[in-house]
Write a structure and sequence with these properties.
This protein has helices spanning about 30-40, 60-80, 105-115, 160-170; strands at about 15, 45, 90-95, 120-125, 145. About 35% of the residues lie in helices and about 10% in strands. α2 packs parallel to α3. It is an alpha/beta fold and about 170 residues long. The longest helix is centred in the middle third of the chain and has 22 residues, at about 60-80. β3 (about 90-95), α3 and β4 form a beta-alpha-beta unit. The chain contains four helices and five strands.
C-alpha cells in the first residue's frame, strides 16, 4: 500500500467485493485474502461498505464486521509507517447521505461508536440537503460539512450558497 502523501490521492482506488458461500454467508477467510491480494497488486486505497456492489444485500452484522476488519487493517498499516508529522484523528463516512432504510442509521451509529471507542472523531461531508443532514449529531458524527452543490452546475443560483450556510447554522 502506498505511503500516505499528498500524491497518494492519484493512486489506485478499489472497492472491496464480498465473497459468499452458497448459503449467502460471507466467506471471511477469502475476504481477508482478497484484501491482501489487492494490496499485493499495488492498490493504494480500499473502500469497504461504501454503498456499492453487494453492500445493500448484506446483513447489519456483516456490514459491521466488514467495517471492523477494514479499520483494523488500516490501523495496522498506518502504525507500520510510524509517521512523525501525521496523526490519525478521525474516520470519514464515505456515503454522502444517511438513508432511512432497514440498516443504515443503525450502521452509522455503530460505526460512530467504534470510532469513538478509539478516541477518534467521525467526519461526514453530505451533499446539499442530503438525507440525514438534519440529524447529523444524532447519527454520531462529530463534524459535518455540507456540500452546497454549487460548483459543478452553472444553473444553480448564487442564493444556494446563502441557503446552504443558513441550513448549516440551523442544524
Amino acid at each position: 500500500m502506498a505511503k500516505l502523501t499528498r500524491e497518494t490521492k492519484d493512486g489506485i482506488y478499489s472497492l472491496m467485493l464480498t465473497p459468499f458461500f452458497e448459503d449467502r454467508t460471507i466467506d471471511y477467510d477469502t475476504y481477508e485474502e482478497y484484501a491482501d491480494w489487492q494490496v499485493a497488486q499495488g492498490v493504494d486505497h480500499l473502500f469497504a461498505v461504501c454503498g456499492s456492489s453487494e453492500m445493500k444485500e448484506l446483513t447489519l452484522e456483516d456490514k459491521i464486521k466488514a467495517v471492523e476488519d477494514q479499520m483494523k487493517r488500516f490501523e495496522e498499516k498506518y502504525n507500520e509507517y510510524d509517521f512523525k508529522n501525521i496523526e490519525l484523528i478521525a474516520y470519514y463516512w464515505f456515503d454522502e447521505g444517511v438513508y432511512h432504510n432497514e440498516f443504515e442509521p443503525t450502521l452509522v451509529k455503530k460505526v460512530s461508536e467504534m470510532v469513538h471507542a478509539k478516541g477518534l472523531d467521525f467526519f461526514w461531508i453530505p451533499w446539499f440537503a442530503a438525507s440525514g443532514v438534519d440529524a447529523w449529531q444524532d447519527h454520531g458524527f462529530d463534524v459535518a460539512c455540507m456540500q452546497p452543490g454549487y460548483v459543478f452546475d452553472l444553473e444553480v443560483p448564487d442564493s444556494r450558497l446563502e441557503y446552504a450556510a443558513k441550513m448549516a447554522k440551523y442544524y
